[in-house]
Amino acid sequence: MNEIKKIVKDYILEEFLPGEDPAGLADETPLVSGGILDSMATIKMAAFLEKKYGVQIEAHEMNTKNFNTIASLASLVQAKLGGK
Amino acid sequence: MIKADAQLVQPAAAGGFGQLAGAWAAVGKFLSVAIQFGLLVFLSRQFQVENQVFYEKIMPLAFGGFLMHYFLPLRYRLPFFIVLSFGGIYLAFGLPNGLWLVGIGLALIGICHLPVAFVVRAGLLLAGGVGLALLRIGQIKVAWAGAVLPILASMFMFRLMIYFYDLKHGLVPTKRLASTLAYFFLLPNVVFPLFPVVDYSTFCQTYYDSDRQRIYQKGIYWMFRGVVLLILYRYVNYYWAIAADEVVSLRTLIQYMISNMMVLLRVSGQFHLIVGMLHLFGFNLPETMHNYFLASSFTDFWRRANIYWKDFMQKVFFYPFYIRLRQRGESSGLFLAMALVFILTWLFHAYQWFWIKGSFLFSAPDVLYWSGFGLIVIANSLYEAKHGRKRILKKPSWNWREIMVRTLRTVGVFAVIAILWSLWISPSIADWLALLSGAGVTLQGVIVACLLATGVFLVAIIVLEKLSWRDAAAPDTEVPFFRPALLTGVPMLALCLIGNPDINTHLGEKTPALVRDLQTARLNRHDEELLTRGYYEDINQANQFNTQLGDIYMKRADNWPTLRETPAGRLTGDFMRDEIVPSKRIVFHGAQLSTNRWGMRDKEYEKEKADQTYRIAVLGASHVFGSGVADNETFEWLLEERLNHARNGEGPARYEILNFASPGYSPLQELVVLEKKALDFKPDALFYIATPREDISSLRHLAATAIKGVAMPYDYLAAIAQKAAIDSSLTEDQAMKRLKPYGNEMLGWLYARFAEICRQHSIQPIYVYTPVVHKLEKDAERDAYFMGVARENGFVIIDISDAYENQNKDSLRVAEWDWHPNAEGHRLLADRLYQTIQENRELLDLEGK
Fold first, then answer.
1. CATH number of the domain located at residue range(s) B615-844 in this protein
2. I need a labelling partner for B522 at 20 to 30 A (CA). Which of B166, B170, B548, B563 fits?
3. A43 and chain B: CB distance < 8 Å anywhere?
4. ipTM
C-alpha cells in the first residue's frame, strides 16, 4: 500500500506539480477539490494507474471519492489488485 | 461520513470546568448561528429577496425548522428535513398541487427502483418524461400542469440522470430512502426553478462530514453572500443595464455587454442562497461558483462558472465517452468527448428552458454561442493537455510580474466571454452585428478600455484572490469559530441597519431613495418598455432566462393568448398591425369579452348620437381596452354608469363613453383610430388615456412598420422615417436607435394633430394621465414634459397618476404574470376619474354647453 502511495505521489509531483515541495503533498492532501486533479489530470492519472498496475479503471470510478487523495487512489488500486 | 456532532449542551457533571466551558461554547455557537440566520430572514424580507414565497414562507420555515432540527438527535435530522421540504412544497403550492408534485416525483423515483432490467426502467422513465412533456406543452390539459411542472422538472430533470447513473453503478446506498427523498425534494427548490445540479454521491458523502457548527456557519456565510450578490445584481440591473438600441459608442457597448452579463450575479446569488440553506441542515456541499469573472483561461472559466454543472457533465458523459473513444488516440478521444459535452450542454440548456418556460429555444445566436464557447474551451483544454497547466500546492507569495500576467489573461478571457454573451442574448445574428457596427469602435477607444479593465481586474484579483479576505469569513477548521461568525454577522447587521429608513436618512440625501429602490423587486427600464409594448408573450430569448421579465414570462398560464390570437382579433397587414373583430363574444384571460358591431370592446351604440347625449371617445391601449377584466368592469364602463347614475337633472340626458382602445396600440395608431373611426360617432370629448413612456411605444411602432416598408398614414411619419434613413436592411433596434432623436419632435406633432382634429370637430381634448400597476421607475421629469406638451397644444390635463397610491400594486393586477389592472384596479381608476370630473365640470365642459 505504501509503495503504491509513493508511486502515485511521485507521479503527481512529476506530472502535475513540477517544482513543488514534495513535503507539501501528503497522503490526505485534497487533489480534486484542491484543483490539482481536474478532468484532464484525472484521465492521465487513470491511464497511468492502468498502465502501471495492469488494472482497468471504469468511468464511474473516476470520482472524488477515489481520486481525491493519494490514500484513496492507493486504496482503489489495492482493491483492484486484490480483486484480481 | 459523520465526524463531529457536538450536541448543544452536554451534561457537565463529570467533566468539571473544561466540559462546562465546552458546553457554554456550544451554546454560544448555537446562538451565534441562530441570530445570524434570524438576521438573514429579516434581511431577505427587508430587501424582498427573490420572490414573495421565498422571503415570506420558505425563509421563516427554514429558520423555524433549523431551530428544531438543531436539537434533534442525528438519526432524526434527515427525516425531519424531508418533512420540512414537504412543508415547503405545501406552503408554495397548496395541498392539491403539492400532492401532484410529490406524487409524480415518488412515481419517478419508484420507476428507478423497479425490479426489472435497467434498460426497461430507462424506457419507462423516458415514457414518463414524454407524458410530462405533453402536459407541459398543453397537449394533455390539466389544471395543475403550469404551476407544478416547472418545479417538478427542476427537481428531476438532471438529478434523475445522476441518480439513475449512480444506481446503475452501485453508488446509491441500499435502504437509504431518506437520502433519496431528501435529495429530490430539497427544501429551497420549491422557489428556485434554476437550481444547481447537486450530485447524489456528493450529497450523501458530505452530510455532516465535518464539525456541524462550522457547516452551519459556512451556510450562513454563503447565504449572506447570496443576498449581497442579489442586491448587487439589482443595483446593476436598475441603474446600469441598457438596451441594445441605446448602444451608440464603445463605452455604451461595453456597458451593455457587461451589464447584461451581470445576470450571472443573480444566478450566483441564488445558488449561494440555495447551497447555504442546505448547509444549515447538515449538507456540507462544495462551492457552486468560484470568482468566475476572474478566470485566467477559458478552461478556468468553465471550471469556475458552474462547478456543479461541470462535475455533472464530467461524471455522466465526459469520462464514459472518453473511455470508449480513447482507442482512437488520446487527442481525438479528448476532442470528441469534449465536443459531445458542449453539444449536450447546449441541448440540455434548451431542455431546461423547455421544462421551465414551456417553449422551445433554438436560435442561431444560441447555436453560435455554444459552438464558439465550446470550441475555445476545447482548444484551450487540448493545449493544456499537451503543454500542461501550472498547478500549485499552496497560495504563492506576491509576485508583481505573475499578477500582471494573470491580470492581462483575465482581461482577455473576460472580454471574449462578454462578446460571446452579447451574441447569445441577441435576437438574431443580424441584431448582434448591428450592435457591434453601431458602436463606432476605434483603436484608441479599445486601448483606453483595455487599460481601464486592466486596472479594475488588477484590484479585483488582489482583493479577491490574493488577499483572501473572503476565506477569513468562510470557516475552516484552522480558525476559531467566532472569527468567521463575526466577519459575517457584523456586515449582516450593518446591512439590516442601512435598510432601516430611520437610519439611512442620516446617510446622505440620496441614500433613502436608493435603499428603498433596492428593497423593491421591480423591472428595469428596458424590461418595463418591453412589457408596456404589450407583447412580452413573444419574448423567447436566452437573455430572459434569468431576468425579472423572464420570471414573469415563466409564470404565464398556457391559455393566455394575445387578442390577435383569438377570434376577437385579427392582423391587418397595414400600419395598424391588428384590429378588433366586430360582434364577437369570447372568454379572454379568464373574463367575458364582447365586441360590438363597430369593433369596439363596448356596449352596442348607435352611430348617430341621440339628442341630449354627451359622448366621450376613449383612446388607449390594453389597460383601457380592459385586458383580463369583464366587459362591465372596465373603468370607462364604470365611469359611464356613475355619470349617468349621478345626473341631477342638469346637463345632458345621457353620457356615453365609447371605448376605442385596442391592445398594444401606440399613440400613432390611436390617432388613426380617432380620424378613421371615432369621428364618425361625433364625440363631444376625447379622453386620450396616456401612460408613462408613450414616446417609446410610438417610436417602436414607427420603427417596426418602417423597416417592413408599410405605407405610412401620415406624410410627417414617412418624412421622419426617410430622414432617419430607415429601410428594410435595418433591425428594429437599429431603426429605433436612429429614430430616437426625433422622439420629442414626433410627440409634439402627434399631440398637435390630436388637438387640431378635436378643434376642427368641436371636440374637447382631455389628456388623462393614468398610473400603471407595476412598480415603475419614476421619471417625473419626463412625465411632466409629456403633460406640458399636451397642455401647450390645447389639451385639458387630468392627472390621476395617484389613483393607486397607498395600494398594494401586486393586488391590483390581473395575474402574477399579467400586469394589467384587475377589476379593483379599474374601479380605483373609475373612482379617481369620476372624482376629478366632478371637481372640474366647468373646466372639462362636460355639461355640453
1. 3.40.50.1110
2. B563
3. yes
4. 0.94
